[in-house]
Design goal:
The complex is a heterodimer of chains A (196) and B (464).
Chain A lengths: L6 E4 L1 E4 L6 H4 L19 H4 L23 E4 L11 H9 L3 E4 L4 H8 L4 E4 L2 H13 L5 E4 L4 E3 L5 E3 L4 H9 L3 H7 L1 H10 L1
Parallel strand pairs in A: 2-3, 3-4, 4-5
Antiparallel strand pairs in A: 1-6, 6-7, 7-8
Chain B lengths: L4 H8 L1 E4 L5 E4 L2 E4 L5 H10 L9 E4 L16 H17 L2 E3 L9 H7 L8 E4 L13 E4 L2 H10 L1 E4 L3 E8 L8 H12 L7 E6 L1 H4 L3 H9 L8 E3 L4 H7 L8 H11 L12 E6 L6 E3 L7 E3 L15 H11 L14 E4 L7 H11 L9 E4 L4 H9 L2 H8 L2 E2 L20 E4 L14 E4 L2 H10 L9
Parallel strand pairs in B: 3-4, 3-6, 4-5, 6-7, 9-10, 9-12, 10-11, 15-16, 15-18, 16-17, 18-19
Antiparallel strand pairs in B: 1-2, 2-8, 13-14
Helix pairs in contact in B: 2-5, 6-8, 12-14, 12-15
The chains are: A alpha/beta (196), B alpha/beta (464).
Chain lengths: 196, 464
Amino acid sequence: MSKAIQYIKSSAVPLAAENVDTDQIIPARFLKATSRDGFGKNLFRDWRYFNDDEGQPKSDFILNNPVFKGKILLAGKNFGCGSSREHAAWSIKDYGFDVVVSSFFADIFKNNALNNFLLPVQVSDAFLQTLFAAVQANPQTEIEVDLEKQSIALPGGEQETFDINSYKKTCLLNGYDDLDFLLSIKPEIEAFEKTF
Amino acid sequence: MSKTLFEKIWEKHVVRQLDGGPAVLYIDRHFIHEVTSPQAFKGLEQRGLPVFRPKQVVATADHNVPTVDQHLPIKEALSRIQVEQLHENCAKYGIELYGLGHPFQGIVHVIGPELGVTQPGMTIVCGDSHTSTHGAFGAIAFGIGTSEVEMVLATQCLLQSKPKTMRINVEGDLGTGVTAKDIILYVIAQISASGATGYFVEYAGSAIRKLSMEARMTICNMSIEMGARGGMIAPDETTFAYLQGRDFAPKGEAWDAQLAYWKTLYSDTDARFDLELHFKAEDIEPMVTYGTNPGMGIAVTAAVPAEETLAEKDLPAYRKALEYMGLQAGKAIQGQKIDYVFIGSCTNSRIEDLRQVAALVAGKQKAPGVEVWVVPGSKQVEEQARREGLDKIFEAAGFNLRQPGCSACLGMNEDKIPAGKYCISTSNRNFEGRQGPNARTLLASPLTAAAAALTGEVSDVRNL
């Protein structure tokens, strides 16, 4: 399976909420699995359903609105705060998103996302508002995310560049993970331990 | 060159600095628990890797465990499987496990310090955001995800970008009835739930220096609730006195050598921080939260903020939070009815917390209709409480003293707050559904929680 992320062009789902914590993304009672698979069905579980019942969807929640779909999740600032549970990144990825766009990400969530080839794209508050407005006005709006160029753009030409450290960029573009790298320098780690 | 405490420890642990990227950071201690480790072990298995340094890993079961009848098998199948997997994984890879029934079992952030595993100058990680607790000893301690747990198991290292540094100074003397929990709830209310994102915080100032180790842990514990990567306090005589003689603290000559090193761990006088904040202890009152993130806190004597005090753009989220909580803008928080009281969690479940509660409620009775759970942070805390007779005080007051675990902090084990009910809680998060679907959480100190247990409503402990 190629995990690499290079270029994504997709419509987006606009989740207009700030300070979305990982308890909302995936409530603790769903953390009992011992594999990484299948968390998507419980993504935003308590915002999606009344009484924890899939037969009772909350129609005003954005994931339940069939008009909005795509591989890009737009979200308000401070996305992914709270618990370190990587299950939050797994559930977003498993649901079908490859990119989350916000004006601010919580640190642990950002690392977890990157380690799961879910690209966190941090944009300015103003550009985030532009993206929300464009998608809300026309749900078919396709947003282009180009990791090589570190750019995110709307069809009308409005665009912004985003930061990502060069190491992580190489990993994502090529499908490498941190563990591959750390294992490759194990002799150096052992040598370090002796001097410590 | 002058350095901050954080920089001194960080630089000592950098194995290699990548150009334009993160550092390879060596990790001294790794705590694991049943919820965020199974997929990491599975990853090792798939790659055919051993655990690189099993002696630097300590495991316990805390998130999923019941807090009654711990001698019986765990009833809920999925929880039982996770705990069993932890046992199997620890046995297979040679990792020390303080599981259910072990005299050292407890919440991971309570047992690390009380056993002396947590020490100044260390880098410490755990698949849990409240790992920041261990920073109270002058360690770089932070929460990680499961992929990172796998990396540390396999290589004892992580790739980490160096965070910015912030110092939060609290000067002066705390008033009666005001505790470490109130300091941190106050700071978070001042700077918001995202006010320290991207930073590693050092807490300093005379009010912090005067705190006990357990109180310092409460402060560092909630660093993550303002978005900080971690929080730390320079070690001092209070730290050394706490550590000396603990099970895994160095002994004899090793103690002397370590102590000499630990005494070098402080921010140099002219060290530069990226951001420095100042607060006065005298301004802090007993605090309580009214909303659905830990930044939504007020003094217990105050009212839920009126809508006029908020920016227009913040109103939708504010209204949503108050609707969830069933509270009214502009109304005093004192007098708000309480259904449940939870005294526990990695924030406030240590012996000093239990002693404070017991001192307040000795000879008194809980209010009718209020359910009160006191959940010690570890087996050792539970034993100590019984030795001191605190169990008798709780029993006489109608409080339910349970067995150690994360309990009602996170609605993942059997201890959940029912939908719509109000719980005043000494834990760290008041997120929607945190203590159970539609449960309503008000965060407070153990004293303020105990006061509510006696009156059945949010009360100012200074009036009792």
